[in-house]
Each structure stands twice: as structure tokens, then as C-alpha cells.
Amino acid sequence: MHGNRRAELRLGFDEQPTEERIQLALTRMLWLLAGYLAVAIAIAIILSHRLSRPIQRLQAVSRAISSGDYTRALNVNTGIRELHELAVDLEAMRHELVGVNDRLQAKIKEKEISEVRREELQKQLRHRQRLETVGTLASGIAHEINNVLVPIILFTDTALQDLSPSAAPRANLERVLAAARRAKDVVKKILTFSRELDEAKLALIDLREVVAEALHLFSVLAPPTIEIRTEIDESLPFVRADATLAAHLLMNLFTNAYQAMEGAKGMLMIGLRYQEHADESGILQPRVEFWVRDTGRGMDAATVERIFEPFFTTRSVGQGTGLGLSVVHGIVESFGASIAVESKIGVGTTFRIFFPAVARLEVTGDLTASVV
Amino acid sequence: MQRILVVDDEPDVRDAVKYVLDRAGYSVRTAESAMDALAELARNPADLVITDIIMPQINGVEAIEAIRKAFPAVRIIAISGGGNFGVTEYQPTAITTTAYLASAEKAGAHLVLTKPFESVELIRSVEQVLGIGHA
Description:
Strand order of the largest sheet of chain B: 2-1-3-4-5
Strand content of chain B: 15-25%
Number of helices of chain B: 5
Number of helices of chain A: 7
Distance between the termini of chain B: 18 Å
Shape of chain A: rod-shaped
Number of strands of chain A: 7
Radius of gyration of chain B: 14 Å
Helix content of chain A: 55-70%
Mean pLDDT of chain A: 80
Order of helices and strands of chain A: HHHEHEEHEEHHEE
Oligomer: heterodimer
Number of strands of chain B: 5
Low-confidence stretches of chain A: 361-372
Radius of gyration of chain A: 47 Å
Mean pLDDT of chain B: 83
Largest sheet of chain B: 5 strands, parallel
């Protein structure tokens, strides 16, 4: 096999550079791919962010709305037109909801208020009706008693005329006559008060003057153990009232306060101020409020309820007719004013009278000008 | 002797007024309603009528108007003690004695007198209206 020469041709090439180039191309491709991927991911992230942020925001707000919170505004800033439009629509809806909700809340509140108001009015009405009944009864009784007193007085006083000064029944008959005269005075009180109302001349008056006058009179009568304080506004509107009756009214309230303090140490506070006060239909009206507060023994709710009834009295027999505050009530009504009482046992009582205000005090000459 | 007619639906008031005026020397008759009074006046004239205001059926004010019309020479005194005359509900301004007495005066009463009164007041009022004594 030696002779056989075998020729051996070896063909070959260096594959290294090629491989290197392939490697390079591969690497490049991979880099390129990685680059593309990175960009794609970045774009995806950015895109999803731009998409999901406003969506999340929408979701949060819609959740808040569904749980009853309508106050969060939908501030979605997005370049995506569809999303933007959706957000605008949702915001409009939220606005509408807020409006509806507010209106509903207001309606509910209104209803609650009117319910309370109605109860209050009904109570006032019942109270008034009772006063009216008692008032009607009182004046009917007054008439009857006056008729009964006619024969008692006439027969007794003529009998006395017939008796000699030393006759035995004289003293007794004189007592009958005295008692009949006292009964006459009590009845007269009821009717005199009505006559005063009947003859009331309503004019524009400055309550400060009436208060000053009544206070002056009262300070003479009141014992020094009672301290009097005043809180009177500088400028007040006029009220339409009868000055004499108004003074009568104040004196009755002062006397009542003084008696509530049982002559002991105490404080009588008096005030006048301008105020807006709800009338019977709940509408605020310009009023001049007169208030008088004592540090007396106070009253329980049952007493306060009946305080304006004629002949209702907590004082013992002979110490009061029980007419004072019913007179106050009658006068207040005749002025178209209203009265309120607050009282607490052991603390004291406050009476407030709300006079309809007519015109500012600054008005000179023509009083019809500048109605408050 | 001056003749007086006392008109009141209350017998005690009628009797007491009659008693006092009888003693004072007047000739006194009584009537218990305005209708009675008008009939009585038609039968026997009187110089003075003393009438209550608040009476059933025809009230005193209407009675005064009727008397003034039919018997213009008769003098009239109205008496009243107040009450709920024609008032169905409580009106502080409508229950006053003076309101009735004022309407009595308007109707033609020469004098008005509030119940109750004493005998001296009654006699003085009668004298005044009849023009006796101090005219």
C-alpha cells in the first residue's frame, strides 16, 4: 500500500471570521430585538399608564359616588379623546347627581322643619283655643256675677239705711256690702282690662320711652334688694302700640318678676333690641324684642303652659287674682305682637315680647318712609 | 208721681231695682222682656224706662231703638254687666260692658249705668235723667 501514493488534498478555509461575523450579526440582531422590546415595553407602559390612570380615577370617583360621596370632582386630564369625553360626561353626571342630592337634602330638611313648625303651631293653637274658651267663660261669668251682685248690693244697702246706727245686724250687713263690693272690683278688673283694649289707640311709639317710664315707676316701688339691669339698643325701630297699655303691660311683667323673687335678693334684667323673628308661617319678620328676666323661683312646664289663662294663679288666695298675665296676653294680642316664656325652677323666668317693627328711628317727619 | 218701667230678664235684678225706686217715691212697674216692655208701654205710658242690654230674643239695644221710635217722649237708662253679647268667640275687644253701653247710648239711651250699682247711684241717675234736682 506504500506505492500507492495517495494524494491528499486538503481544502479548507478559515471559518473564524465568518463565525465572528455571524456572531456579530446575531448579537446585533439580539440587541436590536432587545431594543425593540424595551421600546415596545416602554410604549406599552406609557400607553397603559395614560389609559389606566384616568380609568382608575374614574373608578375611584364612581366608587365614591356609589358610596354616597358626591363631592369629589372628576379632574381627569387625558390626551385620549374617548377617555376625555367619557370623563366629561361622567363629571356632568356627577354634577347632576350633586344637584339632585342637594335638592333632596333640602327638601327633607324643609319637611323636617315644617313638621316641627306644624307641631309648634298646633300647640300654640291649642293653647290659644284654651285661652279663648277660658276668656269667653270668664266674661260670661263676669256678666252673671254682676247680675247677682245687683240685688245683694241694693237690698243690703237699703236695709242698712233702714237700721238705726246702733242696730245689731248692722255690722254683719256692712260686711255683706263690703264683700259684694270686693266681688264687684274683681269682676271690674276683667272688664276694665277689656275696655282698655277696646279704647286702645295704636300709634307709632318708641318702646325705649315706655320702658324708661315704667322702669322709673317700678324702681320707686321695688325694694332695694332687687338689682335692676338694662340692655337697651341705641337705635330701634318704632312699634305700633298704645303707650298706656304698653306701660301697663311692662308694669305687670315687672310686678310678676318681682313677686317671683319673693322680695328676696334678686336681679331684674330688662332688654330691648331689634331682631328678626319668625311669624306664624315661619317667615322672618322685623321685630322689636322686649325681654324681662328675673332670678326668681321659676316655674315648671305645666305652670308655664297655663300661665296666660285668666284666674290661673300659683299664689295663695287673696294675693293675686290670677289676671295679671292674662291681661299681658290680651294686650300683646291687641298689638299684633307675640309673647314667649322660658322658665327653669330655681333659676328664673324670661318673658319675651316681639313687637312688629314699623320704621327706623332715624326717620324724621314722614314716618311712612323707610320701612324696615 | 213719675212712672218708671224696669226691664230685665233677671227677676232678682228687677225686684231690687223696683224696691229701691219704690222707696224713693216712684211708681214702678216691671217687664221681663223687650216685647213685654213694648206691650206695657202701649197700655200704660211711662216717663222712664230702665232696661238691661243683654236679654234673650230682643236685646236691649233693639228695645231702646223700638221705644225711641214708638214713644219718643220716654227717657231711657241702659244697664249692663257685660258678658258675651252676640259674641260667639273670645274677642277681648268685644266683651266690654262699655261697648254695649256705648251702643245703647248710640241707640238713644239718655244714660248708661254699669251693673252692679248702689242705691244712691241708681236714684241719682234716675233724678238726672228725669231732670229732677241738678239738671
